[in-house]
Design goal:
This protein has 2 domains: 392 residues, no CATH class; 99 residues. It is 63% helix and 5% strand. It contains 20 helices and 7 strands. Helix 3 crosses helix 4, helix 5 packs across helix 15 and helix 15 runs antiparallel to helix 16.
């Protein structure tokens, strides 16, 4: 009987992973449309300068993600698919990691399976699993780091602590928001100290935790040395958007900014979400409304158990602390609020709360319906409803939205493909607007070509440097009528060609 249950749970988990894989892999090269410049620079630096601990360009980025991309390019070749397959795989593995973590925390298959299903079909997590942002590493690292830590403490086994130390140490090479996870680690270690002390196992506690902490320190040491040598890079990305940058009427303005940010981030789950089309269906709550209700129920039940149990369960404490701590990277900022990317570390715990709420509600429904067949029919209908609703939201309502194409610079991808398809003998100029970042998209698309295209990148003020010695195309990155008129005056033999999302000035020689 037990083996049959285990087999059934395993099959359900495999089905959940299959659903999660489909959501993260289907049409990966075309949805999201385009390629945002922040993605493109990650890809370009994975090609040109792999192996770095930290990349100071674009306000600074930890290097693990770029090195994983480089590995993918080495195996699969350079393409948008081989670039985005990295976050997709990380997202799929996070679903498995969340199942393992939830099961370890609660010894409850139903909470674990429901939590992982909600994550598998989550628009929030699906979206970031298909975008070339390094932040997707944070939930992946967190679920496995804490799964192995809790597993080690429960089994009193040494190897899970080593695995936890490796994951946690690698976390410092992922995304700036990961750094606050140290607070969660300290809390968990203190709580387990009291548990081991009560058991009279203080010696074992130190035998496990000291090697784990040393391994974390050892793995994180290279990036620590880098920041000691380059202290400005340590806070370069966070400094410009921090609430502490609000210095007018100091410190009242900082407190005001903090509470406004906190309020918006707490409301993002059920009321008003991230307005950025790259991060979300602009303004929509981060959680689909049924999941949002279950999340609130699970959060309430967890807090209630903390304050009503004579010996509060560490699992519930961990969830609540994790939730509050991983909100801090968003709460401590004042730009683009609420910001679903900066608080990406709360994703695992949010869906565990939803899993707790879901099991609670479905147990009530099961008692009310009395008929097991009717209950399972209701459950299946609910799960199918969630799956198809999230499919429609991501792949149709969001994925085919013109605003999303604009947000991901679909026009720049089309420019890159146009240049890639242009014969090598034609001389090419690209006129850059908006600084160096947008052109990264065009450069990456050209890298996907089997042939080496020579392109001259110039500013609008440098068109006098253009020399016509053979057939030439001039591609402005923006539809600038004044510039085209200036080109026509300088090269009257040319003609304007209107493409789908851009213009080209072609000169026959």
């Amino acid at each position: 009987m037990v083996s049959t249950k285990i087999k059934n749970y395993s099959l359900i988990l495999l089905l959940i992973l299959a659903i999660g894989s489909f959501f993260r892999l289907w049409q990966l090269e075309t949805i999201p449309p385009g390629l945002w410049s922040d993605e493109a620079i990650n890809a370009n630096q994975a090609i040109s300068s792999p192996g770095k601990i930290f990349y100071p360009e674009n306000q600074g980025r930890e290097g693990l993600f770029m090195n994983l991309i480089h590995l993918s390019f080495s195996v699969l070749g350079i393409s948008i698919f081989s670039f985005r397959i990295v976050p997709a795989i990380l997202g799929i593995l996070t679903i498995l990691g969340l199942y393992l973590l939830a099961k370890e925390l609660f010894k409850n298959e139903h909470i674990a399976l429901l939590s992982s299903f909600f994550l598998a079909t989550s628009f929030w997590h699906i979206n970031f699993s298909r975008i070339g942002f390094r932040a997707i590493l944070v939930p992946f690292i967190l679920v496995f780091a804490f799964y192995f830590l809790f597993l080690g403490f429960r089994k009193k086994s040494f190897w899970p602590f080593l695995a936890s130390g490796i994951f946690f140490g690698l976390g410092f090479y992922t995304y700036i928001a990961f750094r606050v996870a140290v607070i969660i680690l300290i809390f968990v270690l203190i709580f387990w100290w009291f548990i081991y002390k009560k058991q009279g196992s203080q010696k074992k506690y130190f035998q496990f935790t000291i090697p784990c902490l040393f391994l974390i320190f050892l793995i994180a040491l290279p990036i620590c040395f880098y920041f000691l040598q380059n202290p400005s890079d340590f806070i370069s990305r966070a400094e410009g958007v921090s609430v502490f940058a609000q210095d007018s009427n100091f410190p009242l303005s900082q407190f005001k900014a903090f509470f406004i940010s906190a309020g918006k981030h707490l409301a993002m789950f059920n009321i008003y979400g991230d307005p950025n089309w790259r991060h979300n269906f602009s303004g929509a709550p981060e959680l689909f409304w049924p999941i949002g209700i279950l999340f609130l129920i699970g959060l309430f039940l967890s807090i209630k158990k903390i304050f009503t149990k004579k010996s509060p369960a560490l699992s519930y404490w961990t969830l609540v602390v994790w939730f509050l701590v991983m909100l801090l990277p968003g709460v401590l900022s004042y730009e683009g609020l609420p910001h679903s990317l900066r608080v990406i570390g709360v994703i695992p715990v949010v869906y565990i709360f939803a899993g707790i709420g879901g099991v609670f509600i479905f147990e009530k429904i099961k008692k009310f319906l009395k008929s097991p067949k009717l209950f399972y029919l209701v459950l299946i209908i609910f799960l199918v409803f969630i799956t198809f609703s999230q499919f429609h939201k991501y792949f149709i309502s969001w994925g085919q939205n013109e605003k999303v194409k604009e947000a991901f610079s679909q026009d720049l991808v089309e420019m890159g493909n146009y240049l890639k398809d242009t014969p090598l003998e034609i001389k090419k100029y690209v006129i850059i607007y908006g600084g160096d970042m947008p052109v990264e998209t065009i450069k990456f698309i050209l890298e996907t070509s089997k042939e080496k295209h020579e392109v001259n990148y110039i500013l609008p003020t440098e068109i006098s440097s253009i020399k016509i010695e053979k057939e030439t195309i001039i591609l402005p990155m923006e539809k600038d009528e004044e510039l085209l008129y200036e080109l026509w005056q300088k090269f009257p033999q040319g003609e304007i060609q209107s493409k789908n999302r851009f213009w080209v000035y072609k000169i026959n020689y």
